[in-house]
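Illustration 12: Cutinase family protein.
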Amino acid sequence: MTAYTVAALAVSAFFVAQPSGIANAAPCSDVDVSFARGTGEFPGLGITGTPFVDRLKSELSDRSVSTYAVNYAADFTQASAGPGSRDLVAHMTSVAASCPSTTFVIAGYSQGATVVTNAVGVRTTSSITGAVIPADIADRVDAVVVFGNPIGLRGSKLETASSTYGSRALSFCNFGDPVCQIGGFNSFAHLQYGTNGSTTQGAQFAASQVRG
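Figure caption equivalent — predicted structure in token form:
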């Protein structure tokens, strides 16, 4: 059993007692926030996305903010990250066409971080079944935030891997998290982004990017 599977099973056991976020879309908001949950979590924003989105809404209380929970399986094979990125890109493309002034914040946790990684054009094992954000709306993406991103296992992160979005990206990987840190040894570290201040920092970063 891989470290990733152990961590994912821990997530699955942990989130059962947690409230799940529900997508709440408002037409032509100032900012549209999409979040992709982690492996095994119930549909919604999840244990990391819920505090992240709540804090970001608070930080942007003077603006209208719509939210979208990426609709994908989040299954244990990790292959669902490809279709997840297709759903994310389809949502963004639809909003961009209908709401020309809306800007975007995209974020994800664990396998959801892979969904985001695919969408910004950084290759992963599921990229072949995924989709990339169209170039004509790339400038409307204000911030990209990921928690426990598996590309850390190859010594990479979005800040340096993406020439397009790197300057607008922020990655969080807890010490010992085996999903994103080479040699990670503590599966519980993968569960703590929503409670250790990471989601607050991520929301503050995203809000500062939105404000320019």
